[in-house]
Structures
1.
Amino acid sequence: MPGENLSRDEARERAALLSVDGYEVSLDVRSAVGDTQGEGPRTFRSVTTLRFRCNEPGASSFADLVAPSVTAVSLNGRDLDPSEVFDGTRIALEDLAADNELVVDAQCAYSRTGEGLHRFVDPEDGEVYLYTQYEPADSRRVFANFEQPDLKAPFRFEVRAPEEWTVWSNGAGERADGVWRFAETKPISTYITCVVAGPYHYVTDSYERTLEDGTRLEIPLGALCRKGLAPHFDADDVFLITKQGLDFFHDHFDYPYPFGKYDQAFVPEYNLGAMENPGLVTFREEYIFRGKVTRASYEGRANTILHEMAHMWFGDLVTMEWWDDLWLKESFADFMGAFANVGATRFKDAWITFANRRKAWAYRADQLPSTHPVTADIRDLEDAKLNFDGITYAKGASALKQLVAYVGQDAFLEGARRYFKRHAYGNTRLGDLLSVLEETSGRDMAAWARSWLQTAGVNSLTPQVLLSAEGRIDELAVVQEAAESHPELRPHRVAVGLYRRTGEGSLERYARAEVDVDGPRTVVAELAGAEAPELVLVNDDDLTYCKTRFDDTSLATLREHLGSLTDPLARALCWSALWNMTRDALLPARDFIGLVLRFAGRESGIGVLQMLHAWAESALVHYVAPEWRETGGRLLGEGALRELREAAPGGEPQLAWARFFAAVASGEAELSLLRGLLDGSEKINGLEVDQELRWAFLSPLAAHGVADEAVLAAELARDDTASGKRHQVRCLAARPSAAVKAQAWAQVVESDALSNALVEATIAGFERSSQRELLAPYTEKYFAAIERVWAERSIQIGMDVVRGLFPSLMDSRDTLDATDAWLSAHEDAAPALRRLVLEARDDLSRALRGQACDAAAAR
């Protein structure tokens, strides 16, 4: 990996020297089918013609290319010796002219890691499918280029493919004389170019709109997936969300969609949720649901569709200059996903999901030792890869939500409109956006940016209530605190809500005030004289980004009456605050589990319920005292089964509780019930055990030694698909056997034979919380292997291995010491690798603090 890195300084130097007029890229992927010829990786031919200018004739630079071999290179008509100018990652360019033409004929490798041009063979029918994925810098695995976001150019692609295939790219395409040729793109960055090829199932539609000037806008729509998934593909709903999103963004952005057609490809073995390639957005195919899922899954898919669509403007039309300002696209897209979901679709509770799920991601990331400002310091491409994180996405989106409260929605959207028109097809930095927001809002954006975008860490807000002798509020204040490592106290626009029980027993808000919290203590004068509250909710309505804390009275109220809170957003915010307290060792994990068992069954929001299930399982695995794990697991299993049996037949809560029951089932009776549900000898009224649920039930059976290799093979025969294979691989690695664990370890760490999806599945099966003794020998092996893995494997696989196999289940001081010893002995290791280990160490240290808190509660 180090040889493939590119530094910010190198990129800036090249951008100052060069400008690009255009690319012509010709790919021949007919080699994707049939037997591999010869030794080494399977390759395809890539011919790139790159026209560019140099403002210092005679200067030198380089082009990027990661390929097994280069057949020919010519610069301005001069043939260059590939062995002299190509080192495996770069092509040296000497004595440049004012106007230049570079032609590179290379043999590039198909990928099995989801980076570059990924090749997938469908086990169901043997069909081959291709797609590209580049962010942040993997287009150089497919064609020669200048791999940095600020050297934009128009692209023309042509692709030779097997006769029976269809090929898609960013522009509209047609086939003639055996070659697919695509319309030239607008000026775009290399990382958002795209090619998808294969026998995909393809559905079409159209979007039409009359613009304000009276012209008619028509956007051809397409949606595609593997043939094997076609029976499950609800393209109508995809198109519905797409059209609603296009309406919403045209209404608010006042800039017509600029990239012609709008295809959306659902592709196999995808590393990300989705990618915003203009005209050809790619998604992980798990967004096509093979079984029954809850409304939360459809909401999540809609959010992703709208997130990627927002990128057509924030990211594709206007692009950050370098990855430091990645937030200029990702924070905005994350914000716009929820904003448009609420404003345009049937998912009116999307801000609740944002508060409960997305912010949880941000809060965790912002407390890691690797936390960084939203505008980050990205030294190189390895830094960039790791900064697609909860801060760049969810914290940045939360800051924008706070910004909307600060400047007003109208000023915010008018600023966006001016930003698009002023910088269309260009590249920007932080100041470019702040300047238009200052124009539209009249506010000092520099101060806001310093606090919210240029400092790291999360503040906590706690209410202080002083009551008068008459039982009314004498003074209510909000106390703001920050971690010692990140002491910034930010300005917050917050709503403070007062709640009390009604005669019917519900817990409802009876007073609310908005206030600007600034500094360590802010008095909320508007609430003086109000009747004494049973619950004070700071950050009611979720206007800001903070950790909410409770005073003693409020916490006591939640312990007894959390399920009585009638407002779903307020309830979600309280759950989120309680989970943060658990992670911060302020609330014993067994108390959090008790709250879930007592009140989760009354939760009306299915997305919140599923989040509670995930948190409760995490509390059991990581935060309860080890001596209480067995008891906690039994209580969760019994509670989940009780809620499963009591849930309305056929409803979404029943499905959610069924999946949670499978996740925590461990006792003999529970496992016996799962076996009975699989073979039909047991029934739960209304529960349909479809294929996806069958695999969910088989996972704990495999982990507890009840489902052996023969059972799993039989299930794969029943579901002989790509999805079924991933499930089977996960279950095989989950079996409680030393030999099984050794085989799984070897397949992931000692071999590169598995694809990215099967690496992910194997790691998921390997790490089982019920198998700590079996996993104990791998702590030493992990630290002995990770530097080699990082050096030899692609960055994606390196990240998967280093994160996924860290011995987090060996939650003891010994593991913490072993981690510290590795960090001490490897101070010169790749910074990105050290960051991953430091993050894992922090999670482990937090778990140990949580366990100590939980143990103390039992004494």
2.
Amino acid sequence: MLVSYKWLKKLVDLENITPDELADKMSRSGIEVEDVVIPEEGLKKIVVGDVKECVPHPDSDHLSITQVDVGEEELYQIVCGAPNIQAGKKVIVALPNSRITGNVKIKKGKMRGEVSLGMICSLEELGYSNSVVPKEYADGIYFLPEMAIPGEPVFSYLEMDDAIIELSITPNRADALSLRGVAHEVAAIYDRKTSFPTKELVEATDDSINDYVSVSVADEKEVPTYRMRVIKDVTIQESPMWLQTLLMNEGIRPINNVVDVTNYVLLLFGQPQHAFDYDKLGSKEIKVRRATNEEKLVTLDEVERELSTENLVITNGSTPIALAGVMGGFDSEITETTTTVALETALFDPTLTRRTARSFGLASESSKRFERGINTATVAEASNFAAQMIAELSGGIVVKGEAISSDYQKEDVIVSITLNKINRSLGTELSLEEVSTIFNSLGFEHTKENETFVVSIPPRRWDISIEADLVEEVARIYGYDNLPSTLPKGSSVAGKLSKNQRVIRQIRRSLEGKGLNEAISYMLMTPELATKFVLDKQDVVALDLPMSEERSTARQSLVPGLLKNVAYNQARKHSRVAFYEVGNIFESFEGQSLPTETNHLAMAVSGVWNAKTWDSPAKNVDFYTLKGIVENLFNVLGLEDVLFVPSKAYAEMHPGRTAQVKVGETVIGFIGQVHPQFAKEMEIQETYVCEFDLEAICDLTKEEPTYKEIGKYPSIKRDIALLSDAAISSQEIVDVIQDKGGKHLVDIHLFDVFQGEKLGHNKKSLAYSLTFRNDEATLVDEDVTSVVEKISAALAEELNIEVR
């Protein structure tokens, strides 16, 4: 939310309060200020120019040579490439040695052989975003009003000497999404008075709204009130300069004098409105209802939308003409030919508005306010204010009366709280008078009964409904800095790390020792990503009031967040990316009011693992790189009987390079390569990931490591070469060897694998080194030979493997 300091100053007394002081005070009182920007800062020597003469450049088909009055004795010759430049217009001129946006210095020069003393500027060259520049000036220069005086700085004409305060509004403080709401907040902080502009509605006496339109709604729960006024005999034109500059500084593109009024009221009241061309409605009946499946509507962006029963629409009795609370229809928009305006002011169900905005990707300033809530007490006032303002700026007349579905009135919320409750919660010793003063500054009417306050909460603060909300309000206005601070009370006791804390510290040390960096990802993501890399998907945990679609659903896996980090780093040319993350996943189970949080461990590695050196080539990450890191970690933790079982169950993983990881019979996670198709969607290179249930790992980890004395007697090694079917896994072979190897077999090591045409179709050769040792006596060759023979026989019988 952008707030003009000059505009705010008209609504609340800000005498002796600078923009920076106001920003600091607001941040410390509950509404965070992101930044304070004065648009003219960094710009200099930019003045009003009066174009006296404009002729085509003799050596160019798109340049013009102008003679411009900049308030000096002689005219300045300036070569200009704007297609709309013409004589008789007041323009923005950057003089020689001036500075425009980006700290670019404008110098005297020549263009195609003609001297150019400065530059005629567009709004973008003064720092305005292209998204807020009026469309008629988007490809050219901006014209200043006729009353602008040549040679004067342009900043006051464009209100660039204003301070623009950027607020970060949390969902619970949607009342601050309007200038009136911000003014109430500032008035409470400084105990000042507010003063809001009003307009006396002047209605035609020869016409009645009943002759123009009637309105109705299908469900008053979804549309508590729908109001429509009609303004006739309007002339569509540019808005006055003050309104255009105000909207541009607030981040909104000026359109015309009717649409700009609806945006002005949106900013002032926080009340979204929509203006229809009355003559294009095709009916005198307006009905608000749910859309039907496959119903169509072309919205203002000229895109045809296929609707569903989840969408609330405005209709002309039969055909949709707008998406309620989100966007109007293209066929009924205000154009230069409009002579009669139908002005909509309404309340729409927040949930339906949010669903519609999300489903079509049409998040707007209007939908954002309907989703979070608006001040129900000023709906009628906003309707009258906007209708009269449109009439004044367009030369129109407001038709007598207003078509209303129902005159919705929301009563004040009553909350009682004792002085003792406030002081006990805040640790303060406030008096009845001090708390009463705070409630007065907030504009909350209240009565006192002994030491109990009965507080009436106005509709503009719909975030307050319980005692705790009032305690927070008192704390904010009293000042968090003024609350007393105390040290915790109680006797100190000796403490130590829990088993899980020790295990997690071991994990961090091990992984960081292997070259991985810890990442901390957002727990919230899109609904689509939230359930990726999950075998048993549960119901998602979605926020009721998310800040954005990107951060709306709690994750069920850590991997998607790590892959976004991988993509971010690879986009910035980092050739080696290795991350791990320890964090919670969130799953919703039937019958549980709260989601289940489970601690997980995930890793992601990609790119070059060992860089090229003078004596060795570069080595890229592969499956065994990550597998080695995982095996080393499990060795550090003392996990035994760890198995890697091939798996094709994970849709986002490569079906031939993925394994489930088991400890005994317990599945603790998975490891493998991200599926190439999914990697392409995430815009990442070949990447390997793993994820484990950290709580399961902690349970399986031994409390203390077990140490054994090093064997006194020599070991015997035997190599065994095998020819097997390619489909037989090494783990199956190792299982047979362990089963028949006896108690003296202490190690099995695969040291060679070969496949080729010489071996035959679908065959492979494997070579294992077997180590035998008896810690109580010296082994003899005969004992080892007999065991190796048993192993060979079992391999041939159970797996049809040839011992070579």
3.
Amino acid sequence: MERLDALLRGEAPSHILPFLWMKGEDNETIREELVKIEECGIREICLESRPHPDFCGPGWWENLDFILPEARKRGMRVWILDDDKFPTGHANGGFIRNPEKKKVYLAERHMDICGPCRSGAVLVENFLQPDGKLLGILAVPKPDGQTLAVSGDGIMDLTDRYENGFVYFDLPPGPYRLFVLYTTQTGGGREDYMNLLDSDSVRVLIDEVHEKHYARYPEYFGNTIAGFFSDEPELGNVNGYPFDNTMGQKDRKLPWSGQLEAALREKWGDDFLADLPALWYESGEKTPGIRVTYMDEMTGLVRTCFSGQLGSWCEAHGVEYIGHIIEDDNAHTRMACSIGHYFREMEGQHMAGIDVVHHQIVPGFTEPVHQWIAGDRDGEFFHFGLAKLGSSAAHIQANKKGRALCEIFGNYGWAEGNSLMKWLTNHMLVRGINTFTPHAFSMQENDRDCPPHFYARGRNPGFACFAALMKYMNRSAHLLSEGIHMADAAILYHAESEWSAGNAMFFHKPGRMLMERQLDYDVVPADMLRENTASIEEGQLVLGKEKYPCLILPFSRYLDGETARFLVSAARKGLKVFVIDALPEADTLGRPLPPGWDQSAQTVSLSEIGEAVEKWEEKLGNRELTVKDGERTLRSFLLRRPDGLTAMYFNESVSRPVKARVSIRDKAYGSVTVYDPWRNRAESYYLKGQEFPLSLDPGEAVFVVLDKNIQSTQPFPVCTGTQPLCVDWKLSRAQWPETDFTGERLLRAGEELPNLNGPGYWPSFTGVYRYECLFQGEKEDRKCYKLLIPEASDCVRVKLNDTDLGLLAGFPARADITAALKDGENRLELQVFTTLVWSRKDGASTHLQIPATGITEIPVVECYETGQEADKEERNK
């Protein structure tokens, strides 16, 4: 309870570092924005350098000369986005000045030739791009004319037969494909960008950005300057955002560097050149092994040259390195706009990062086909996999210190109000995300760059509610930080399996089956399953501080060989291993799996894995909290600390309530404390039969704390009566930021409450709608009263009898009205704040369904029995 007590005292460190758009504003404007950020309880910012007109130039230094002392005076920390362009890798134009160090690609051109042939020739000089450097020329047999496959055997190296732009050859009978293999710096993705596989190339970014900041502000490093943020660095071998860029795609350039070439030559020896065509075309049995080796070495260099080098530089200079990659639509194991292996890229960072922007996550869209700005997939990954990547890395990579960061809210458009933001916040919290970069604060009037912008120069009617949301976010994140996450299973990361076969099952498929049964998991990369990293204790997989009762292997034709050997040993020590659908055929290099492998795992179907894990947990008898009668939409997160347990439950349904019970294994717990981060209040209740009720409306979350030292005699309140406010409502409105309400209208009792931004009302209005009514109340001692607002948009301020009861977001929602309620006539005022979508009609908002504005369902006064009366009511039920 120490952490909860600190929260109730108003003590919590920062878990929020929003982007602050930097566009060269004057100092007074910057100061005003910092004041507004501070009003939100936010004590860190991340300077978004991308839109600044003079990054690392006089204009940028002038801004930082003001911001850093101003931040220090306010006790704020500053992060710096580490480049002048999006994504990270342009190095502030460093590769225009150092073109020899920019990205390099491996490329191939080919044509078909046929034998028998003596002294044949092909003009290949034109196959090379102007800067192309020839690696080699091969004649590769074609096994058939029906596919693009080539043979892995009988390959002839013609490199030494290249002369004067022609290659000369003698061929035996049969069809061949003539490959010209070369490297180039053109024709791939973004020009003048960093090569993540080359230490010297990455050093250009450090010299052009990091070193320049350190040279100017060394006294701020490690205190006011917290560190640097990389935004979506990419391999960039292909232009744009093809999320499916895997091995085996023709006409695609591949990431390359001298360091990668040296590593592959060492691995493949004399077969180096002959193995390369298999990166694009099927080449028989050796294909999976070649592709896995390439991806393994390539992503290992990303770890070493890029994130490892940046992380080490930051550590040496007293700051930290954070950020995220593109994970979208399962791209995190792939190339192009992503990085090839999520966990390897994250190793150098000091927080595990993800982002949710562009409508990737929308309530209710949990299936694979889900339209968002950049595509129409994969809602299932976004709901059941994305956040688990970040929280899992935070749990198992020691340098993260348990911190998982999410860049959130960005470019959903002005249609995204505080209610949706609260839902997204809960979605992330219950999956273990505990640090946030809200996207974004902008100091430009009517900025059309990736809204929403939270203060919007005073134009956002919902800003006061946003400030309340930020305090809710920070308190919740702190409550769910710095403990031991208690997972029911580990799931093997599918990277190597996908590299080898391409049809491997995604890790989030079984993850979904667990989450829909209120079972939690971490995803674990094969890199961690080594004897010197992972261990088995009392039949559980141990990674750092984390313990997993079982390990799940998603279906794949191939399994990493070292992982297989570890699992044979682990199974002998008692670890339960589940394999989805069928056992792998071989290891990822095409070799037989180790002896005893087939006896080391239990095969279960995807649909049965949740039940199988649940039964295994019941057999072990070590599950601390178990949900009874839970719904598929209910999510859970459990954390252990020395003084007890902390749990969060969130009903993600858009329409169905959840009524369940949570049983507690340890009988030493006699009470449960329910914490409300929105109001920063907590109440303890005694347990009956080692259970407590879980009743959640759609979109509602609850936080509970169990402490053996807390023994309450108070029962849970029981709702014993409801009073729908079927009364006349006086309606008026104020155009934001004005506060004078005008244009009164009467909404008669019994009439349907309308969409106030709908037809017949005010479709372009942005501001505040005020609902006023009188109602008769009956107030009794020792009872609690709440006002339920079943449906509203976007956020609501509640005033009862001139007492301000605060703001609400995310509906249904309740306000405690006990203190303000009178026995007799009561005057209720509800102020509804709109979003700016109705007036600004921004492009990003076209991808988001907009709820009806106003109070659209009749509010209800609820009466709750407390104390002994509540106990009687519960017994009667």
4.
Amino acid sequence: MNVSYKWLSEYLNLDSITPEELAEKLSRTGIEVEDVTIPQEGLKKIVVGHALSVVDHPDSDHLHICQVDIGEEEPSQIVCGAPNIAAGQKIIVALPGSRITGNKKIKKSKMRGEVSNGMVCSLEELGYSDKVIPKKYADGIYVLPEDAVPGEEVFSYLAMDDAILDLSVTANRADALSMRGVAHEVAAVYDLEPSFKEVVLTEDSTDKVEDYMSVSVEDTTDAPIYTIRVIKDIKVKESPMWLQTKLMNAGIRPLNNIVDITNYILLEYGQPLHAFDYDQLNSKEILVRRAKENEELVTLDEEERTLSSNNIVITDGQKPVALAGVMGGLDSHITDDTVTVALEAALFEPISIRKTAKELNLRSESSSRFEKGINLATLQQASEHAAALMAELGEGTVVSGVASVDTAEVKDSVVKTTLGKINRSLGTTISAKEIEKIFRQLGFGVTISNEEVTVVVPPRRWDIHIEADLIEEVARIYGYDRLPSTLPTTESLPGGLTTKQRLVRHTRRFLEDAGLAQAISYVLTTPEKASRFMMRESDMTQLEMPMSEERSTLRMNLISGLLDDVQYNLSHNNQHAALYETGRVFYKDPTQTLPIEEEHLAGVITGSLGEKDWQGEGEEVDFYVLKGILGELMTTYGLVGEVEYQQDTNRSDMHPGRTATILLNGEEIGFIGQIHPVTEKELDINETYAFELNLDAIVQAEKEATVYRGIPKYPGMTRDVALLVDDTVTNQQIVDVILEKGGKYLKHVRLFDLYQGEHIAPGKKSMAYTLAYLNPEATLQEEEVTKAFEEVKEAIVTQLNAEIR
């Protein structure tokens, strides 16, 4: 909301308050002022000129040689290319040495051999946006009023010496979307009394509105108030300068006196109005109803709109002529030929207006105000003021009476609180007298009796309903900067991490030590990515109104996001990526509204974990590298249950021969493997390995207590064994046999070699293991270790049909 300081001064005495001081005060009391601008700043030596004569340039088909009175003894010659310049006009002249917008300096020059002492300016060259320049002057220079004095600076004529306050108005303070609303706010802040000029409406008693128009509303919930006034014998013409400058400073383009008046009232009262060309309505009946499905209307922006039953429309009894609260129709808009105006002032249902504006992508100044609320107490006053101005500026006559449907009750609201509640909430000791004064400043009625504060709130502050609203008003006017700063008095509680927090932190440290970097992905993704790599069957949870298709669905896995990060790294020439992420995934439960949230851990690696340097080549990662990292991590959790890896060929986005399901006590808690080559090609990534775990399942699983032991005093022994087995035999099977037969001193089994290829029979593979033995209480005897090792070899040969190499 752009607020004119000069316009505000018409309601309040601001002589002792500068625009900057006002902006700072308003920002501290609840309505943020983002900026204060003075349009004339940066401009100089720009004056009123009087075009005495205008002749065509002899060497140009579009330039004109103008003799211009600029308040000096002799006229000044200026060459101008504007198509609308003419003798007798009062124009804007930038003198030699002047500065126009963009800090551009104007110099005396020659144009096609003719001297030009300056420049005749358009509004654009003074810094006005194309969106606010009057349509009549959009392609040429602006013409000043006839009473403009040559030689005087133009800034006061164009109200460029005004200060414009850019207010950032929140949805709950829609009362500040009008000049009168801002005036009440400033009056409350500075303890001033606003003064509004009384509007006198003169009606033609010989002519009645009933002879012109009748009004009906199909459903008064959609339009609790709908009124029409008729102004006849008007002349549509250019608005006076004062009206144009007020609209331009507010960011609205002047069009003609009738339309400009409706916009002026919108700014002053916050009440949207609409003016129909009465003769184009083709009916004396106005019916407000819901649109029919696929009904069509061409709006003022010349777009054909297909309507639905969500839209409220104004009809001439048959077809729509306006989209209620949003935009008028093209067929009934005000033109230069209009002689009779039907002036609409109404209240429409806010939610319907908001939905219509969103559905048709047609947000307007009117819809914005109807959505947030309007002051019912001034609705009829705004209509009367507009009708009076149309009669004055359009030289017309107001027909007596109003055609209306009015079912809304306009009344003050009563809200109660107590002195104790106010002071406890704010931490203050404000007296009853001061609280009463604050509410009086706000223009509210107030009585205080036995600590109880009863406040009568006028309709212009429809945002105040409950006790907390009153306390906020006291805080604003009393001054947030005057509220005491106190620390809360509570019992001190020792801080600590939950079991889940400790496990997650441990996981992060371990994976980062292993060479993986943490990644954070979006929770929202595409439906396709959300449904990949799922660990359980579930429907998708989708947003009703997503900002984009890329962020429309809650994820059901973490790997998709990590693969996006891998793709990003590869596209930026980083061929080695090792990433992990902890975060929640969301499964849909048809029996409840909210989705099920489950904490997951996922990781991906591609390329090499080590850098290529003078010490050697970086080793390419494979399934076993990632499984080794994950296996060590699972070991550090100290899980009591058994962790197993079983081959898995049923995951569509994972390699069928290089993927395993991870089981804890026979229950699936995750998977690990290579991304399917087809998926890798689709995502344009290299060979990539990934895992995903249900971290909640690990948190809830039983764990061994942490026991700290001293370093063993006695040395251990190791034995190596190489086996030739069928390629269907898994590592887990071999390890299980070794642990079963290894004896009480076997502490650790490690696979250190796997080979298939030359010198190995087809269908076979060679696997080599190191077995570590230790007796923590005595020195191991060679015979003990040898006996246990022989039993292991025998069991492997017998149970797995292996050959010792």
